[in-house]
Structures are given as structure tokens and as C-alpha cells.
Design goal:
single chain, 541 residues, mainly alpha, 2 domains, 0% strand
Length: 541
Amino acid sequence: MSEPKENIKKETFMQGVVTIMFSQVAIKILGLIYTLYLTNREGFGDAGNAIYASGYQIYALLLTISSIGVPNAISKLVSERLAVGDNKGANRIFKVALATFGVIGAVGTMLLFFGAHTIAYNWIQIPESELTLVALSPAIFFVSISSVMRGYFNGRRTLKITARAQTLEQIFKTVLTIGIVEIVAYVTSTSTEMMAAGANVATTLATFSSFAYLFMYYRLRRKEIGNEINQSINYKYENVKSIIKKILMVSIPLTLSSIMTSFNKNIDSFTVKRILSTYMPAIEAQTLYGQLAGKVDTLTNLPLAINIAFATALVPAIAAAKAKNDSETATKRTSFSLLTSMLIGLPCVVGMIIFAQPILNLLYPGARYGALLLQLISVSVIFSILDQTINGALQGFGKVIIPAIALGIGCIVKLILNLILLPIPELNVYGAAIASIACHATAFIIVFNVLKKYVKLDLPFGKFVIKPIIATGIMAICSYTAFLLLGKLIPENLSTVIAILIAVIIYCMAVIALKIYNKEDIYMLPKGDKLYKFLEKMKIY
């Protein structure tokens, strides 16, 4: 017996996308709040960001090894079992994965805890980051367990549960970061090192809150899940060894892809300060790295947070369609998701380029530097956002190793360019930005060409590239003109906010006027039928 109808009705593909999208937007807004607080906090700033970010990137790498590939892997395997009515097999996969990754997470925690000194002093050469690594170590275990639970609920098409858990985690992280850092600042007379460690203690406590929520929800649903298991059909028994092997065969390639993402960030951790310090004061090199890893990465990750909804929802949706040999659904959802990713990414890139300095003035009044860096890095966003969606599609099709290979090649390109460009004083930290663009462009080109072999995409060049560029151009001209005119009448920060709002409105109007979405695309949107009827009544379609 397949998943109960009530669950299917609650979680259609686009409902799942919207649920995750709103959750990710909330998460990034909350993340921006505590990042702004830390960056503008006296005694923290770009130097504090360097300590905080360097420690966090090492934690992220170990976290990736222990858990990051798990949600999509479990989601894929569970959705495949549920698609053919094997609820019992889906639950067995979940329980075996829970035990397996609980052990792996515990090992990751111990490695980070006992290796913190060596990593801080010898690897990244920022000794102050040792305490941040120690503070983060317990989080690896909690996230590993939570990742399995998130994958199970995603596979059951109850994406709202994982969205709530992640949002709850970010709420705790924001509140606790501000609270703990203020206490530490008071006790230590604003010690930057101790404040950075305190901020990462907040991260560990927040990951526990997410785990606790998922665990309690699962306990509440045990009876219902038990009934589903009793009604299961097409159950195919697999021993524990076979299940672990299957999970690892799917999760390891996914994890390799995530490792490459984390390694990409750590290339900067290992090279930027180390190389820049050879021809400039160490504190200046650390500050430039702080701008790159703190402010710029935070801002350029915002579009990716919105788009991750498509990548997450595509994995179980395409895996289920593939299990039923429904290639038409897989093709439509992939094409729609890629077009929407382009429509999200392109205006974000152009917006960050033309409003780079006003955005930094607005968000970081105490640390306004880094506009050119933001402009350069933002170019990589369009490649990252499309790559993110394509990876979700490829994972759903079972081509899980391709994204890892593509990003691995991109990382090699980035490492080589970092080593070539960073030693050039005229380029300094901007060399890392150029290398990032090359990295993500390389990965995108590879995965896009691979995807075209498996899916006959319904994306004409005019619809996918030309029209979005025209819409973005109209948005850019109108919003920047408004910014210049408003700047003569009202304070810059207010004119920046109004100009960005104008950009959003103009862009949406341009997308509709250019008919970038056809009737079928609009019907895929939430309330799409009503929206199309309205546009038809307005004689736009």
C-alpha cells in the first residue's frame, strides 16, 4: 500500500518547493541577522569573522563527511520504496541508516574535538580558531542523526517537517548567538577569540534543538507509521549489510559532492591568509579573508538558499517518477525547475553588482569594505544556482557521482588559480574571487551537458536565456535610476531599500509581460490555475 492519500495531497511537488523555499528564506534572514550583529559588534568585525569562519569551514568539512549527503540519499531510497508500496522496506532503510550514521557522527565529533589544536595551529594557521572547533565538535553527532531523519521525512513527502526543524534550529542559533556573545563579551572584556567560540557554542546548542524536534515528531507518528508498515505490499527483505551497502553507494557520491563544496570553501581557508601574508601584514590578510568568508559569502548564499528548494524537492520527485517509468513528469519538473532557477539567479547577480556598495553600507555600517569583492563573487552565483538544481535532478535519476566529479574538477581549477592569482599583489584577495567564478562555471558546464544526455529539456534558448536577460536589464535600469533619483531626496539606506523593492516589482512585471512562463509552467505554480485565469482576464495571456 502506498503512502496515505492525505500525505500526498499535502505535499505536491510545488507545495514541497514552496515549503522549503519559505523556510530557507526565513533561515537566511535569521542568519543574516546574527551575521550582521557579529560583523558590526565592537571587538568582532572582519577579524572575528576570520576566526569564526575558518573554524566553521573545518567543522563543515567533517560534517559533510559524516552526514551532508545523507538526507538526499535516504530521501531517494525511501521515496523509491514508497512509490511501489513497500512501507516496511522504507522504514527498515531509515532504522539501519540511523544506527550507521549515529556511529559515523560520533567518530566525526571525536576527530574534531581531539584534533582542534593541530587543525588551528598547523592547518589553517589561525590559532584563535581552536576554541571554535572544540565548541562545534558535538554538533557533528546531532546533525548526523538529524540528517537521517530529514531524509526519511523528505522521502515520505513531508518536507514541511524538515523545514520546521531547520527553521527552529536557525531561530535558536540567532537568539543564542547574540545572547552568548554578549555574555562572553561582558565577562572577557570583548575578547574576539572568546566571542567567536561563544558564537559556535550557540551553533552546537541549535543543532541539538533541531534533533530534539525531529525525534519528538517521529515518536508522535510511530503508531501511524506502524499501521502503514502492517499494510505494506511488495516488501522485499534485505539484510542489514545489504541496506548499509545500498545507503553508502548512494550517500557516498552525494557526500563527495558536498565534500567538494566544503573543500571549495576550505581552499580559501588554507590559501588566502597564508599567501597574502607573504606580502602584507598578517592582520590585513586576515581581515581580507574575513571579508571574503564572512560578509561576501553570506550575501551570495542568499539566492542559493531560495533555490535549494528545487534541488531538494527534485530528488524524491524524480526518483519516484523514475521508479514508475514516468519520464514525462521527470522532464517537465526538471525543465521548470531550471527555468525558475535562472529567473531567481540572474536578477540576484545583477542586483548585487549594481548595488554592492549600497548593500554593504546598509547591512554593515561598521564594516563597509568589500564591494568589488562582492561584485566579482556574485558572478559565480548564476553558475552555482543552476548547478544546484541540475545536481538535484541528476541525483534523482541515480547519476549521483556526476555532481561530485564536476565540482571536483572545478575545485582543481580554483586551487590552481588561487595559487597563481593570490601571489599577485595587484589582485590579492580578488584572485580568489576570480578563481571561484572559474570553479562554478566549470562545474556547471559539465553537469549541464551530462543532464542533456538523460533529459530532453524543454528550454528554448530564447526562453531560457534571452528573455530572462531582457527582464533583468529592464529591472536594472529602472531600479538603479530610482536609486539615483531617490538619493537626492532621502537618506541612502532608505533609497537602497526602496530601489530593491522597485527592482522586485519591475522584474516580476517584466517576466509576466515577456511571457517567459507558458500556460503549463504557470499551472505548476501554487494556485497556478487561478493565476492563469487572472492573467487571461487581464489579456496578458
